[in-house]
Write a structure and sequence with these properties.
Layout: E1 2-5, E2 12-15, E3 22-25, H1 28-34, E4 39-45, E5 49-53, E6 58-64, E7 67-72, E8 78-83, E9 89-92, E10 105-109
Parallel strand pairs: 3-10
Antiparallel strand pairs: 1-2, 2-5, 3-4, 4-9, 6-7, 7-8, 8-9
């Protein structure tokens, strides 16, 4: 089990399953959403994801048709995204988890969009 929160602490979440690995995404939408070269994500079944504080503190943005990014209305922390086509899953941003210690990269998505200035080997998860 994992617990996490946003930067200001208004939102707290719990994941009630194990996480073995995470994905890295270099798509342009993730780069702009996170103001970063990439983002990390894990797919969690909705029944294993729980908002334990701050349900009323969420805002959402539809970044593409049927894809919603959920973030804290107060501090702006991106917590997860949902996709209408995959309503049984949430795509959690594992950096919000306080005890997340998984080091295994499952997939690297849109690697061709990796900026030239990003000098780390994304396939070296050790």
């Amino acid at each position: 089990m994992y617990e996490g929160d946003c930067l200001c602490g208004e939102i707290k979440v719990r994941v009630n399953c194990s996480i073995e690995s995470f994905d890295m995404c270099f798509c342009n939408t993730c780069q702009k959403t996170h103001a970063s070269a990439f983002t990390t994500g894990v797919s969690i079944k909705t029944e294993d994801f729980e908002i334990i504080k701050g349900k009323d503190s969420f805002s959402k943005y539809e970044s593409s048709p049927g894809v919603f990014r959920w973030f804290c209305s107060n501090c702006g922390t991106h917590i997860y995204k949902t996709n209408d086509d995959k309503s049984h899953l949430v795509r959690l941003r594992p950096a919000i988890l306080n005890n997340f210690d998984v080091t295994s990269v499952n997939r690297v998505l849109f690697e061709k969009n990796k900026p030239d200035w990003f000098l780390f080997d994304v396939r070296d998860s050790k």
